[in-house]
Amino acid sequence: MNSAVMMLERTAARLGDKTAVRDEWEKLTFCGLRTRALSIAAGLTQARGERKGLLPVVVYLPKSADAVACFAGAMYAAQPYVPVAADIPMLRLQSILKSLRQGYIITCPELAGNLEGLELTGFTVHLSQDLRACPPDDVGAMTRLERVMDVDPIYIMYTSGSTGTPKGVTIPHRGILDYARWLQETFRFDEKTVLGNQSAFYFDNSTLDIYTMMYTGAEMVIIPEVLFRFPAKLPEFIEAEGINAIFWVPTVMISVANSGILAERAMPGLDKILFCGEAMPNRQLNIWRRCHPKALYANLYGPTEITDVCTCYVVDRPFADADPLPIGLPCRNMGAVVLTEEGQEAAVGEIGELCILGSGLALGYWNAPELTRAAFVQNPLCADYDQRMYRTGDLAYVAEDGLLMFVGRKDSQIKLRGNRIELGEIETACKTLPGVENGCVLFDAEKQEIVLFLQTREALVLRKVNLELRKCLPAYMLPGRLVCMEALPQTPNGKIDRVKLKSTL
Q1: In this structure, are residues 103 and 57 in contact, taking their beta carbons and an 8 Å threshold?
Q2: CATH: 3.40.50.12780, 1.10.287.380, 3.40.640.10, 3.40.1080.10. Which one for 5-197?
Q3: Do the Cβ atoms of 428 and 324 come closer than 8 Å?
Q4: What is the DSSP string of 206-261?
Q5: According to CATH, where is 3.30.300.30 located in the chain?
Q6: pTM for this entry
Q7: What is the pLDDT of residues 146-163, one digit of tens each?
Q8: Residue 179, H or E segment
Q9: What span, in angstroms and rounded, lies between the C-alpha atoms of 185 and 179?
Q10: Domain 417-502: homologous superfamily in CATH
């Protein structure tokens, strides 16, 4: 297969009348998804005009089955798709369009008015409902797909840049094709699998749900976003909808565990529980494991510059609350190496920068060659031929058993009064404290002070917190300031919003 949409072709031929994806408003069978995607592709191709080269398809729609059809439609049109949020700030959308330079925008009547006032030169705007009305063109789509190579881009996903300008991470078809096969082989997803989608489509975790559905014939249920604001209601929905597999960010899993609902309402059908995007604290993971002891649990790791994930650890033993949870071993056709600051391979137990190699690497950043060259570099351990690797900026080490252990961000390593400190180590320790539901540690450079943000139901006192932390941390790592909150702010992806917390320093 040279294009990821060929997975949909094969599954539609095998399971055409089976439900592929459903949301609050509609459900699409595999044949229905294919037909709608072919119509969208036909409409986009007719609107191409005299424009040359790749024309990225910006999908500016609510999170829905229709948005998934638009992703497939872009692939049938032999173009990469660009998912953006329905509530994206217009200045950010304008920055993305400036980066893309040309292409299509698919939207709906409810959102189309937001585009007024934007500079849209090089782009044509289409309503999804108009594209769906176009006659599907099987022959034209297959002719276009014959020219697609597996190294061509399948999607461009925009992530925040250190300069304040969004960066368009460009993933090739081969990354998704490899990833989908690895997922099926590792977790035995099949047509009986019902995936409960949590991640926004502009967040790469969503690719597990979308392409597992296309490759295996699994059903994808888009969970209403409002339910994640009321975690105690999620088990009822999961049970009612027959969901048996989830891939969520840890913050959401933490909220569900902290709500106490897991002890009250069992989800006997839920047998695969995967998580990625942040460090998962063992305290809340252990709550899940006690309430659902027969389920498979897996800790996955991967930055956006990789095809979703690149390492995996299937949780196969108990962990104490304060123990670190491994991120495991590289996935199929992926490699990982921990490098010292001198560019040498770190010894066992030695902390260094985690660098990733393999077929899942992004092609680079769209229209940003200098940023691409800085992040995707030659592997210094390979002198015989060109071998690209991605410098993640994450710190890790290899444990005695060969498993990778995540430490934290390279930019979260600080030096305070001559001591080198990993803020992630403090976070792990604080999440084991009695009464703490979640936590985040930041450094106030101006005041030279470690600040501890804790999600608690009752106010805590810094002196007493530090007395507990001194059982596992040296004195120089103890926080100098404590902020207790009913709930830590979250990004739209469901992660802790560190930028918002930093603005309060």
Answers
A1: yes
A2: 3.40.50.12780
A3: yes
A4: HHHHHHHHHHH--EEEE--GGGGGSGGGHHHHHHHHT--EEEE-HHHHHHHHHHTH
A5: 417-502
A6: 0.87
A7: 999 999 999 999 986 544
A8: helix 173-187
A9: 10
A10: ANL, C-terminal domain (3.30.300.30)
